[in-house]
Specification:
InterPro entries: Epimerase_deHydtase, Lipid_A_modif_metabolic_enz, NAD(P)-bd_dom_sf. It comes from Chitinophaga tropicalis. It is a single chain. The chain is of the alpha/beta class. It has helices at residues 11-22, 47-54, 76-96, 137-156, 176-181, 184-191, 199-216, 234-239, 241-248, 252-259, 274-279, 288-297, 304-309; strands at residues 2-6, 26-31, 40-41, 59-62, 101-107, 124-126, 160-165, 218-223, 269-271. The strands form two sheets. The chain has a seven-stranded parallel β-sheet with strand order 3-2-1-4-5-7-8, with helices on both faces. Strands 6-9 form a two-stranded parallel ribbon. Strand 1 (2-6), helix 1 and strand 2 form a beta-alpha-beta unit. It is globular.
């Protein structure tokens, strides 16, 4: 078995290839940037480059993309070129070369405006059935690329699984006001309740998708840490997140107090990973309970894989007002 991994110099691509190497699974990594886990440097927009790299591949894991941090620094056309035309190149050539299945890394950002409830409304329970409502060109192109995957399954019988990942980046939050309110680890710990996944869990989900794709055919899966919340919590999460979390984790207030940390005043959405756990057999390790246990014992709650990969950033240059510029 040979797996072609796009975006192999990025966070997730590197994580996947590190695991493939540890399991002695044959693979090829491609990226526009050179790196220790990239076999061939080139763009997925270059069809001839993709054609050469696709030869001999049994599966494709497509993580390469322009991200939300690029919205303020790249044109809409560049997003269309990379996220759409690049994905189309990969799908067409995967079909041509007889690839057995195609795994596409998408994002919960495609839900866009669906993630913000109106004042007085409960938090949003986000499953794979939630409607896409993109807020920017990033979300638009990721949604359209998902549709391309569905089309290639429908019309060409190419098994395609779409993994809609929540936050796994180690960089600071892109919102200046949020960065000023919370220590970075404090904020990330809070996010494990509803909108973050450890990169190790995310990478393993992709490899499970490779194993299951031919049998499943087509499917979309939210890849986020298992939330402790139920639909009964949604109203209270908008009014008193601290109280809801304390009810689920009675030891949390004391642990946070010892760290000088604080909980979010409200939580506006909950990502539900049940479908991925059932259909892919995914068992994410890193959740809020794990975070609390690590804090109790004085350990870093990041996975070893996450720590060794570290922060990569999204731009070659630095910016005055944060880790990257943001534009919706």
């Amino acid at each position: 078995m040979r797996i072609l991994v796009t975006g192999s110099s990025g966070h997730l691509g590197e994580a996947i290839i590190r695991i493939l190497q540890s399991r002695s699974i044959d693979h090829t990594g491609i990226d526009v940037k050179d790196g220790p886990y990239t076999s061939h440097v080139g763009s997925i927009v270059d069809r001839s480059f993709v054609d050469k790299c696709m030869q001999g591949a049994d599966f494709v894991i497509h993580t390469a993309t322009l991200h939300k941090p690029h919205v303020a620094t790249h044109s809409c056309q560049e997003f269309i070129d990379t996220n759409l035309s690049g994905t189309l190149n990969l799908l067409e050539l995967a079909k041509q070369h007889g690839v057995k299945a195609f795994i596409y890394t998408s994002t919960t950002s495609t839900f866009g405006d669906m993630l913000t409830p109106a004042k007085g409304e409960p938090a949003i329970w986000i499953t794979e059935e939630a409607k896409a409502a993109p807020k920017n060109i990033y979300g638009v192109t990721k949604t359209a690329a998902e549709d391309l995957c569905q089309l290639f399954y429908r019309n060409h019988n190419l098994p395609c699984l779409i993994l809609k990942t929540s936050r796994f980046f180690p960089e600071e939050d892109d919102n200046k006001s949020v960065r000023e309110l919370y220590q970075d680890d404090n904020l990330k710990a809070n996010e494990y309740l509803y909108r973050r996944v450890d990169i190790e869990d995310a990478a393993i989900a992709h490899l499970l998708a490779v194993e299951k794709a031919e049998k499943i055919g087509f499917g979309k899966y939210i890849i986020s840490a298992t939330s402790p919340f139920t639909e009964d919590d949604l109203h209270s999460l908008r009014q008193d997140a601290h109280g809801v979390v304390a009810w689920h984790f009675p030891d949390y207030p004391e642990i946070y107090k010892a760290k000088g940390w604080k909980m979010l005043p409200e939580i506006d959405r909950v990502y539900v990973n049940e479908k991925a756990r059932i259909e892919l057999g995914w068992k994410p390790k890193y959740d809020f309970r794990y975070v609390l246990d690590c804090l109790k014992s004085g350990k870093d709650f990041k996975s070893e894989l996450g720590k060794v990969i570290g922060s990569k950033g999204y731009h070659a240059e630095e910016f005055e007002h944060g880790p990257y510029p943001v534009s919706d």
